[in-house]
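Are you able to produce any protein sequence you like plus the matching backbone structure tokens because I've never seen that pairing?
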Amino acid sequence: MDIIGRNAEQSALLECYESGRPEFVAVYGRRRVGKTYLIKETFRDRFDFYATGILGGKTARQLETFTGAVSEAGRKNLPAAKDWFAAFAYLKQHLSGLLEHKRG
């Protein structure tokens, strides 16, 4: 299925992807307007890591879900992160490992 009317958004996302620099992009907006679909269709199989939040989820549950996504991506059994600093440290380790693998 093609995306209609999102050329500017797709261009901005692809510009970040092709910049040659690490980029962090947050996509936000009202519920059910196609944010997840936009991301998945724009990048398809180019993800090194992908996670979504839980609407109305408490921080502990968000951290469990995020840690699970990092574990799944890296095939590790990580304990749930205690805070977002620890969660992003897990992600940094995962992405660093991918980078080392690509270099090696």
